[in-house]
């Protein structure tokens, strides 16, 4: 591949962790001299950063790969890369299924993309899925936004939820040092970024693998301590974090979020099921009563905080009564947003082998009923914004209406209002909310 012909395209599936990994790999490719191609067919290096949480996402990858593998038969210089969780899960079997692939690499190898591609360009077909210690990331991401950025703080996951493949594809927990995280945030602040989301598959576990304990016996480095450590980074006006696990979510963390002015009043805490027997079968490590206490404590310190979560319906053996306990939890708490999914058996997980699988018809019915309730409660929650003045960080132009710009409230509600993006992008402005929908708002810009 000649230097003048180097163009790349990345397609990302799945979670924010994958999106952050894609930005880092894009940064590596641009450092190597590649240029971004808007369309896959205009690129001669195509990278699919994959997700294996749901079967439909995995099947979509194979569909995309099939088209590009056929293209490679007439364009032998095309380089095909599969990264992420499907790559880690399938390993060499991916090469047997799609022999046109040049590189298969797990998420722990994202920082090694240049080294692995150099092996490919030397004529090798490479599989990199072995466990590694993740070295400190010194790459410069090519970020999709110029206003908001993701910063990884912990990789991997030590949980063993019976439905989840993440620990086997993303490896054990590995926390970055506080100084490295702060240095990345300081660089972002100098570049003009205004908001940072701290990322971890299980972010509440941050610091458990780092050395040191306090006099009272707790870990020296926790997410709470990290928030205090990075809160005063110049230029960064808002801080978010995701994804939280109820098992580790503490009142100390909640108090810190209430005290630190840059930390936004939005918490993403998946509950997965509202039934204790299902939670036990999932090996989640908490009860629905504990989850309710967490939300109660958040609202005690921050009454207006937005709560979002994830939920699974149709887990093996889930009865109608158990499903109704999930509906009751959603009804009682009133989530601002809830990501829902029907249970999907994943290779290598205990629950996939259980005999008490539910039919697709039952799962689909429950998913529709839950989604209807979620939309109803989210619309109710949105009504509290009407006629209020909200601080909006302007991120971009509304792609559906060029006369409007869009941004988010501190509570993460997407908000549209008339304005010129050239004058407003990256600014924190006050907007009076004039219309509220289930998952977005419309308003009018107030004069300064």
Q: What is this structure, in a nutshell?
A:
The chain has 448 residues and is an alpha/beta fold.
Q: What descriptors fit this protein?
A:
about 450 residues, 6-stranded parallel sheet, 5-stranded mixed β-barrel
Give a written overview of the molecule.
The chain has 448 residues and is α/β, with parallel strands linked by helices. It contains 14 helices and 18 strands. The protein has helices at residues 16-31, 55-72, 85-90, 92-97, 113-121, 166-170, 178-190, 223-230, 251-259, 276-282, 288-301, 320-333, 360-382, 421-424, and strands spanning 7-12, 35-36, 45-50, 79-84, 103-105, 126-128, 148-155, 174-175, 195-200, 238-242, 266-268, 306-313, 337-342, 389-397, 404-408, 414-418, 428-436, 440-445. Strands 2-1-3-4-5-6 form a 6-stranded parallel sheet, sandwiched between helices. A 5-stranded mixed β-barrel has the order 14-15-16-18-17. Helix 9 (251-259) packs parallel to helix 11 (288-301) and helix 12 (320-333) packs parallel to helix 13. The longest helix has 23 residues, at 360-382.
Regions with little confidence, pLDDT below 50 for 5+ residues: none
User: Approximately what portion of the residues adopt beta-strand conformation?
Assistant: 15-25%
The tally of strands reads: 18
Q: What is the average of the pLDDT values? A: 91
Distance between the first and last residues' Cα: 54 Å
**What structural class should be given to the helix and strand makeup?**
alpha/beta
């Amino acid at each position: 591949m000649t230097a003048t012909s180097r163009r790349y395209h990345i397609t990302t599936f799945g979670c924010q962790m994958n999106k952050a990994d894609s930005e880092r790999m894009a940064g590596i490719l641009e450092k190597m001299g590649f240029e971004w191609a808007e369309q896959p067919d205009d690129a001669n290096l195509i990278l699919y950063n994959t997700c294996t949480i749901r079967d439909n996402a995995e099947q979509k990858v194979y569909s995309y790969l099939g088209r590009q593998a056929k293209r490679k038969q007439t364009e032998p210089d095309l380089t095909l890369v599969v990264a992420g969780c499907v790559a880690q899960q399938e390993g060499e079997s991916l090469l047997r299924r799609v022999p046109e692939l040049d590189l298969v690499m797990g998420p722990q190898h994202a920082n090694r993309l240049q080294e692995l591609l150099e092996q490919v360009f030397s004529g090798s077909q490479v599989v990199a899925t072995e466990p590694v210690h993740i070295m400190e990331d010194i790459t410069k991401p090519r970020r999709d936004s110029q206003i908001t950025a993701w910063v990884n703080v912990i990789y991997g996951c030590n949980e063993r939820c019976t439905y989840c493949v993440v620990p086997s594809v993303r490896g054990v927990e590995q926390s970055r040092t506080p100084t490295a995280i702060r240095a990345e945030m300081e660089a972002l602040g100098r570049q003009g970024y205004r908001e940072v989301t701290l990322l971890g598959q299980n972010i509440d576990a941050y610091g458990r693998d780092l050395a040191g304990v306090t006099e009272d016996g707790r870990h020296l480095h926790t997410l709470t301590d990290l928030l205090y450590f990075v809160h005063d980074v110049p230029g960064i006006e808002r801080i978010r974090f995701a994804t939280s696990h109820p098992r580790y979510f503490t009142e100390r963390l909640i108090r810190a979020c209430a005290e630190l002015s840059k930390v936004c009043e939005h918490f993403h805490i998946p509950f997965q099921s509202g039934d204790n027997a299902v939670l036990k079968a999932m090996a989640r490590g908490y009860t629905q009563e504990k989850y309710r206490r967490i939300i109660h404590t958040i609202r005690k310190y921050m009454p207006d905080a937005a709560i979002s979560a994830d939920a699974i319906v149709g887990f093996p053996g889930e009865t109608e009564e158990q499903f109704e306990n999930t509906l009751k939890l959603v009804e009682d708490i009133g989530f601002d947003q809830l990501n829902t999914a029907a249970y999907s058996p994943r290779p290598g997980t205990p629950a996939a082998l259980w005999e008490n699988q539910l039919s697709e018809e039952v799962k689909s019915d429950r998913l529709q009923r839950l989604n209807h309730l979620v939309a109803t409660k989210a619309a109710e929650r949105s009504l509290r914004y009407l006629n209020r003045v909200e601080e909006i960080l302007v991120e971009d132009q509304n792609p559906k209406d060029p006369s409007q710009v869009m941004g988010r409230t501190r509570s993460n509600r997407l908000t549209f209002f008339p304005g010129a993006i050239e004058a407003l992008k990256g600014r924190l402005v006050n907007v009076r909310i004039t219309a509220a929908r289930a998952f977005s708002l419309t308003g009018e810009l107030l004069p300064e």
